[in-house]
Amino acid sequence: MAPLRVGFIGLSTQGWASNITGPALLHPVLREKYDLVAISTTSEASAKASTEKYSKDVGHPVKAYYGDSSKIASDPDVDFVAVSVKVMYHKDVVLPVIEAKKDFFLEWPAGRSTEETKIIAEAARKQGVRSIIGLQGRYSAALVKVKELLASGVIGAVRSTNVLAHLGGGLWPPIVPVSDRYASVKANGATRLAIPIAHQLDQLTHVLGDFASLSATDAKLYPVATFVDDDRKPTGETAPSEIPDHFAISGFLKSGTLVNIFWRAGYKIGEETGRRQYVWGIDGEEGTIRLESNARLGALPTINEPDLYLNGKKVELEVPGSNILSIVNAWSEFADGGGSYATIDDAVKHHELLDAIELSASEGRRVTLS
C-alpha cells in the first residue's frame, strides 16, 4: 500500500510539532506508511524555512503553503492533513481540511470548548472522514503493559484507583512563561484542566472505563500569575490568575470502580522536598499496579514515561517507551485502518467530562454522566 501523503499545518522549525510530532513522522516505522509532501505555516518565511529543513529530512521537495488552511487541504497530492497549532485556532484551521474531505490528525484538546469540538465532530461525520486526536499517551509503553496486566487478571477485580499529581512547572499559574501567556487565559481553552489533567483522564478511562458520576472541588491557592522569560526569570509583570491550580475529583466509573484524583501545582520541586510528582495506583482484590514518576514534568503522561510497579516490584519493559514512540504507534495503527487511537468522538466525550468537573466544582454537587 502506498504511503499516505501528508500535509502538515503548523510544522515549523521549533515547538512541539518540530520537537516531537515531526521526528515521529520521520521514524522508520512511519516512513513506510506516511510521506510528508507539504507544510503550511503562518508566514511565507516560516513556510520556506520549514520546507527547506524537511525536504532534506525526507529526501524530496516538500511544498510550502502559508495562511489559509484551505490551500494545503485542497492540494490533490495531499491525502492526510496533520494540524498542530494553538488550541484557539483548532476549529478554524481544521474545518477547511474536513470540507476538502481529507482525513486528519488534530492535537488535543481539539477545540477550546465542547461546542467547538462538537462542530468539528459533526463536520467529520458529514464528510465521512477519519480522525486521530493527539492523545497518544494511551500508547505509552507503561500503559500498554498496564492493559496487559489488567487483562491477565493478575491483580483480580479492580475496586479502586487513585491519582496524586503535582505540576511544578509548565504553562500555567503561578509561574507563566511570557511566550505561553495564552495558556493562562481561560477562554483560550488550554488550561491545566484541559491539557495535563485531561491527558491523564484519557489514560485512566482508556484502561478502566468511563465515569458514571463525579464530584469535584477546585481552588486558586495561588491567585497571582508571575510571568517569566525563557530562562524562567521574573519579568516583573504579574496578573490575577484565571484558572484553578488545585483539583480534587472523586467518583465512580461505570464498572463500579471508585476513583480519587488530586492534582496540585505551585509548590517547590526537587529531591530535597521529597514531593512525589506523579503516582497512579490501581487496586485490585489480589494486588496493585502503580505508575510513578518524579521527573519535573512527571505528571504530564504524554511527555514522561513513568516507572511501572506490580505488587510493589518494578516491571522492566522489554521496549522502553517515549513520547515519540507513543505517536509512532498511534499513527501506525491509524494508517493500518484500525486500533485504539483517540478520535474526534473521543474528544467530544472528554470535553463533556471536563464540563462535568467544572460544573460540579462550581455548584458543589455530584454530576451524573450519560
Tell me about this structure.
Residues 5-133 form the Gfo/Idh/MocA-like oxidoreductase N-terminal domain. This is Gfo/Idh/MocA-like oxidoreductase N-terminal domain-containing protein. InterPro entries: Gal80p-like_C, Gfo/Idh/MocA-like_OxRdtase_N, Gfo/Idh/MocA_oxidrdct_glycsds, NAD(P)-bd_dom_sf. Residues 143-293 form the Gal80p-like C-terminal domain. Strands 17-16-15-14-7-13-12-9-18 form a nine-stranded mixed beta sheet. Strands 3-2-1-4-5-6 form a six-stranded parallel beta sheet, with helices on both faces. The mean pLDDT is 96. It has helices at 16-25, 28-31, 44-58, 70-73, 90-99, 114-127, 141-152, 193-208, 323-336, 344-363; strands at 4-9, 34-41, 63-66, 80-83, 103-106, 131-133, 158-167, 175-177, 211-219, 224-228, 234-240, 246-253, 258-265, 278-284, 287-293, 307-310, 313-314, 367-368. With 370 residues, it is of the alpha/beta class. The chain starts with a strand and ends with a strand. It has two domains: 4-129, Rossmann fold, CATH 3.40.50; 138-312 and 343-368, 2-Layer Sandwich (Dihydrodipicolinate Reductase, domain 2), CATH 3.30.360.
